[in-house]
Amino acid sequence: MNASEPLKSRSHFPGLGACVKQYRGLIIFLACVALGFVTLQVWHQREAPAERTAHRERALQAIATIYRIEMRKAEMDGIRVVNVGYDNNVMTFDYQLKEAIPAQTSHSELLAALKKGAMEDSCTLEPLARHISEGLMVVYRLADVDSNVLGQVRVGSSDCASAQGNPPVRG
Asked: Which CATH code is given to the segment(s) 55-164?
């Protein structure tokens, strides 16, 4: 090799330069599509938690509406459902007594019965049980005939876990 002779680069792939020139537009297009796909995936991963939260909120609103409609039709001994609502990760069931409380029945007995039924229903029946394990708080309020609140029972994930003998589910 002579020092005055220019270095010739040899390609291990002869004819590649012509092929690249011929398909340059297609290569640029495919690179842009791949870059767009990667960008979309990264964006979606950032937006997914907000979408899941919005979906959960819509689902809980729908569940409250269904319960409101169905429970008003249901006949329960001495109690009627006044309202079922959902707001800010709390679902509220408002019950009212149909008749005045007999003198021998105390408020604590009524609330104990309400708590037993609330724990049983909330912790075992779908879809409430799943949502409670994800952090939903369910509040059951009991009012007398004159709409005076006698008390309320709160059921959350730790209540369901302790009732079933499991450690509380953390979300």
From this structure: 3.30.300.250
Q: Rounded distance, CA 124 to CA 143, Å? A: 25
Q: Tell me the pLDDT band of 105, cut-offs 50, 70 and 90.
A: confident
Task: Centre a 10 Å sphere on the Cβ of residue 137 and count the other Cβ atoms it contains.
Answer: 17
Picking from 74, 91, 96, the residue whose alpha carbon sits closest to that of residue 147 is 96
Instruction: Copy the structure tokens of residue 81.
Output: 């459902």
Least Cα distance to 63 among 5, 1, 7, 134 occurs for 134
**Shortest CA distance to 122 belongs to which of 136, 110, 102, 108?**
136
Collapsing DSSP to helix, strand or coil, 49 comes out as helix
Exposure class string for 36-58: b at 16+ Cβ within 10 A, else e: eeeeeeeeeeeeeeeeeeeeeee
Q: Model-level pTM?
A: 0.64
Please answer whether residues 168 and 158 qualify as being in contact, where contact means their C-beta atoms are separated by less than 8 angstroms.
yes
Domain residue ranges in the chain: 55-164
